[in-house]
Hints:
Layout lengths: L3 H18 L5 E4 L13 E4 L5 E8 L4 H8 L4 E2 L6 E4 L7 H17 L3 E8 L1
Amino acid sequence: MVNFQELWERAQTKGSEALTACIPTPMTVIETDLSGNQIPDSEEYFVEGGECGFAWVTIKPGNCPFANWLKKNGFAEKDSYYGGVSIWIHEGGQSVTRKKAFAEALAKVFEENGIKAYAMSRLD
Length: 124
């Protein structure tokens, strides 16, 4: 029998390690008009973390013992769109690359322990 608390802590550790090792591609954001031309005298913004977005891990089925434990302990919520339950990644600031690295590490630990887990992400 898997100890869910230990599994959660091990996954969080692997997620933190993946986030720390992740090196996103920085980007520069400029203000443009509707045609894509830079607006004169507009500011340029350097974004060290690269593209902004969200990441999460989906666990299926949403009523398996681990999913129930996650919900009970406030680590996941029911996912009415994809089914199962979702663990939203809050670590990594706005960087979708960092958040995705964290989510993929979590999902890998869960999968290695027989739990169906999918790392997902989207740009903001």
